[in-house]
Design brief:
Number of domains: 1
Distance between the termini: 9 Å
Oligomer: single chain
Protein name: Transposase
Structural class: alpha+beta
Strand content: 15-25%
Shape: elongated
């Protein structure tokens, strides 16, 4: 099989570069759609379920939790790691669950974009090797 000519290789690189750019653009549009759907939870947030016992009864509640203090406390100027959401199925609970979901999807799309950016650098810097 004949070796590809330099012009063919440059055309191939340009075509691959353009495909990657289109993929990045599509991913960025997905991120914009996520933002239109609602807020993103803080980085590293999750919804936690906890139990309260009172008069021999058990009650289940939910909270949005983060690793570092982030939420403004209602009674002081301090920050808290927790935001009380109430019972399962309340508007606050569902909004928090969906914001955590959107954060997860946003972060995953961002990781893919960074990977594709690295691919663009590989193509444009000429650091790729042809194995023919």
């Amino acid at each position: 099989m004949p070796r590809p000519r330099a012009n063919d290789t440059e055309q191939d690189k340009l075509a691959r570069f353009e495909r990657i750019k289109k993929a990045i653009t599509a991913l960025e549009k997905q991120q914009a759609l996520l933002l239109k759907q609602g807020d993103l939870a803080p980085q590293g947030a999750w919804v936690a379920r906890y139990q309260v016992r009172q008069n021999l009864k058990k009650y289940w509640y939910y909270k949005l939790q983060v690793p570092m203090p982030y939420f403004q406390c209602a009674t002081s100027d301090k920050l808290s790691k927790y935001k009380h959401l109430g019972k399962a199925g309340t508007t606050g609970h569902i909004d928090a669950v969906m914001s955590v979901f959107r954060r997860f999807v946003w972060d995953e799309i961002q990781r893919i974009i960074h990977t594709l950016d690295d691919c663009l650098l590989d193509i444009s810097s000429g650091s790729e090797l042809d194995f023919c």
